[in-house]
Amino acid sequence: MVGFGNLAARKRAEDTVRAVGFEILGGFHSHPDGSPRFSREDIDVILDELEAVYSKVGLSNWLEIVIGVKRICRPRSSLGLKKLFQRGKTPKPGFYPWNVEPEIAGDVLITPKTAFRVRTSGYWFGDGEVREALLCYSRY
User: Fold this and answer.
1) Cβ of 119: how many Cβ atoms within 10 Å?
2) Alpha helix ranges (H) inside 2-139
3) Cα–chain-centroid distance for residue 96?
4) Of 23, 68, 76, 89, which sees the most CB atoms within 10 A?
């Protein structure tokens, strides 16, 4: 379920974003099961929030990013990271992307024994519809 927590804290964050001249485009949440897909409940909550709260400030479209995160139990034998560990080398911590349009996906190596598979998807909400967004990743 999508939860916004403390409403006063959310309003302070939104007011701060607007005070520095930016507009709010959307939000994000994570799924610890590794799935970057929305549940029906996620969709209903976001559409309700868009209608009840954000439409009152003139926001009719919302970009919601969902980040699926799953621990990689054995980074040395993981398909995405195995080549990095070849020849006895210890790879540097970092994000190692792989191409899965329209997602941003890859493995995050923290230490040689700690890594996570990350899959990120985006969806546009507006006019009662949900449309998948094409996300792009760049190191620059």
Assistant:
1) 20
2) 7-19, 40-52
3) 16
4) 68
